[in-house]
Design a protein that fits this description.
The complex is a heterodimer of chains A (115) and B (113).
Chain A lengths: L2 E3 L4 E5 L4 E3 L2 E3 L5 E8 L6 E7 L7 E2 L2 E6 L4 E6 L8 E9 L6 E3 L3 E6 L1
Parallel strand pairs in A: 2-12
Antiparallel strand pairs in A: 1-4, 3-9, 5-6, 5-10, 7-8, 8-9, 10-11, 10-12
Chain B lengths: L3 E4 L2 E4 L4 E8 L5 E7 L6 E7 L2 E5 L6 E7 L2 E7 L7 E8 L8 E2 L3 E5 L1
Parallel strand pairs in B: 2-11
Antiparallel strand pairs in B: 1-3, 3-8, 4-5, 4-9, 5-6, 7-8, 9-10, 9-11
Classes of the chains: A mainly beta (115), B mainly beta (113).
Chain lengths: 115, 113
Amino acid sequence: AQKITQTQPGMFVQEKEAVTLDCTYDTSDQSYGLFWYKQPSSGEMIFLIYQGSYDEQNATEGRYSLNFQKARKSANLVISASQLGDSAMYFCAIESQTGANNLFFGTGTRLTVIP
Amino acid sequence: ETGVTQTPRHLVMGMTNKKSLKCEQHLGHNAMYWYKQSAKKPLELMFVYSLEERVENNSVPSRFSPECPNSSHLFLHLHTLQPEDSALYLCASSQDRWGETQYFGPGTRLLVL
């Protein structure tokens, strides 16, 4: 079974500063993928970044980077140079790459960027 | 614009009504998904279709009935719903069933009175 824990219900960050959103996971699988999605108030889940469990380098996509610490089972999202448009819910998810391959989501973190 | 559209965006229905949610993907993907997002709960996977065949049904009540007529379209037929079914219903698609990123639509916000 897969489980995602996001312990920060809400976070605030000053515009142009960096922020880290925490995510820890639990899985017994050897091969898995970790995802971060952004959900603005409009409701759409927007894919941000992916990290495979065998990837040696931390994933980066523009201002997003994933701080992957496999031994600690953490996959924190770092957003650099925050913008007002970054205010949204952020969800961490895990997908097993063996077996059913379903996505399991955490409860999310609401990020508010302060001007 | 992620290439996954959902209609309607908002729906209010009584418990005795029958309605359908529609999802369409323009990405050439082979797998489609229905999720339910309730307040303060993680997204719950409801149904998975791969190449138009239902491959997973996560113990969803029979008042929810999916239909996948082709790889681009996915429907969720609703009948005799309960107020606790009020939620955001999200559709997603991925290239294939295995290890591929899922791309989501904007969701249908459903209110059952």
